[in-house]
Inverse folding.
């Protein structure tokens, strides 16, 4: 009985999350960062190279984050430099792409 | 409850101290994932609310402190298949390390870190990254329970537009301290990544330097298509306990109806894994006691705002014993917050 209640609770929570997230998406203007816009183009060669390195390196392990607060980018890229074994040049270019 | 309070206290103090210390430089971040998982195999059903916070604190231009914990309550029947449901708390400090970027090609890491063997443990074990809820059947080979306490050198030995060679080499000491347990081991991994075709292959080695000394070695492959939303990953590993492999292919249906359509958010995954137990007994190796095959199918659904639903079915085919169906379902939320305003550049 308790098992069924837990499953039911899980399904209800999932449904609530689905409804809430879809509702938010349809009512708020897009706040996506550059990181999530895979088709973003830039005339700046350094930024373009940074975008390329971001897509190639970060996509090796996970989907890019939907939103990346500007204040968090430096810590995120430093963290990923260690995790993904990026070079200093990769770190610099990706940072320039995320925070032009 | 005491364990939860201790974890929360240490985490809060760390946050407070380092947020203040680094207020003038890059902002520390609190990231990670939260999830609720359920699984059913045979007559056993259990549920797990999980919180996996990640803390990253950059210090100056070259230093970084980073940490990840795994806090989960496992709710299961008292006697396996019968009795009332009861919860047991498990708290694991997965890594707490100090990194120093010595130069463009070398990072020196000290502390507790994820053992670099293959690709699953270091790169895919986070609950918001792992496409399946469970770890591969061979995950225990070469990883020394997943965590190491010691020193590690890592980085990109060569990095250019055509290829990159990355490496990690470490030594871990024996630790019997609760929540910081590790084995005396040494090892590393070398990988070659070709950005043009988004292919990486790697090879790993570990030498266990305590009790029943043994070598473990393995190979891994990771490929992401640049034309299709398709990725293929796999590992093969061998130790005295036996050998085995896992491989999966995941295809995100983002080509159907645009990036935000309901169908485009689906990601079917197919995984196959096998383990072949050797005849030599190795105690406490956390591997199946007999040969096992595990074909599986999963379905992820990516909701907006970093929420993911996942469900999977697998069939455990054992050479001696009864085959078992395994059902899993779950929801994960990935979060990321800067802890101060900091300097974004």
């Amino acid at each position: 009985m308790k098992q069924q209640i837990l499953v039911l609770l899980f399904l209800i929570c999932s449904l609530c999350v689905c409804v809430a997230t879809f509702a938010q998406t349809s009512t708020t203007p897009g706040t996506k960062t550059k990181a999530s816009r895979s088709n973003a183009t830039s005339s700046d060669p350094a930024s373009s190279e940074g975008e390329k390195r971001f897509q190639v390196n970060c996509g090796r392990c996970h989907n890019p984050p939907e939103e990346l607060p500007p204040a968090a980018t430096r810590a995120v890229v430093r963290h990923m430099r260690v995790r993904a074994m990026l070079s200093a040049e990769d770190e610099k270019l990706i940072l320039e792409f995320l925070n032009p | 409850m005491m364990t939860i309070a201790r974890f929360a206290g240490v985490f809060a103090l760390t946050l407070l101290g380092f947020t203040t210390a680094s207020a003038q430089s890059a902002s520390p971040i609190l990231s990670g994932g939260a999830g609720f998982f359920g699984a059913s195999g045979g007559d056993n059903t259990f549920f797990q609310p999980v919180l996996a916070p990640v803390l990253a604190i950059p210090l100056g231009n070259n230093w970084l402190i980073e940490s990840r914990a795994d806090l989960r309550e496992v709710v299961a029947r008292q006697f396996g298949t019968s009795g009332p449901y009861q919860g047991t708390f498990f708290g694991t400090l997965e890594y707490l390390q100090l990194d120093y970027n010595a130069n463009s090609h070398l990072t020196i890491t000290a502390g507790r870190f994820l053992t670099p063997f293959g690709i699953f443990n270091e790169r895919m074990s986070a609950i918001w990254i792992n496409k399946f809820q469970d770890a591969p059947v061979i995950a225990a080979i070469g990883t020394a329970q997943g965590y190491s306490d010691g020193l590690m050198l890592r980085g990109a030995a060569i990095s250019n537009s055509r290829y990159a060679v990355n490496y990690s080499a470490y030594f871990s000491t024996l630790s019997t301290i609760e929540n910081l347990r590790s084995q005396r081991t040494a090892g590393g991994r070398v990988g070659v990544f070709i950005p043009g075709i988004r292919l990486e292959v790697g090879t790993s080695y570990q030498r266990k330097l305590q009790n029943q000394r043994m070598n473990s070695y393995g190979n891994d492959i990771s490929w992401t298509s640049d034309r299709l939303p398709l990725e293929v990953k796999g590992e093969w590993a061998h130790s005295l306990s036996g050998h085995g492999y896992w491989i999966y292919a995941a295809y995100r249906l983002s080509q159907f109806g645009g990036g935000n359509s309901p169908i485009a958010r689906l990601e079917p995954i197919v995984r196959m894994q096998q383990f072949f137990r050797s005849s030599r007994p190795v105690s406490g190796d956390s591997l199946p006691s007999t040969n096992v095959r595990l074909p599986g199918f999963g379905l992820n659904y990516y909701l907006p705002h970093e929420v993911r639903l996942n469900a999977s079915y697998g069939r455990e085919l054992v050479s001696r014993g009864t085959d078992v169906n395994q059902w899993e379902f779950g929801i994960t939320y990935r979060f990321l917050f800067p802890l101060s305003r900091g300097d974004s550049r």
In short: Confidence is low (pLDDT under 50) at residues 5-9, 15-32, 37-42 of chain A. The two ends of chain A are 56 Å apart (CA to CA). Chain A has two domains: 1-30, 34-98.
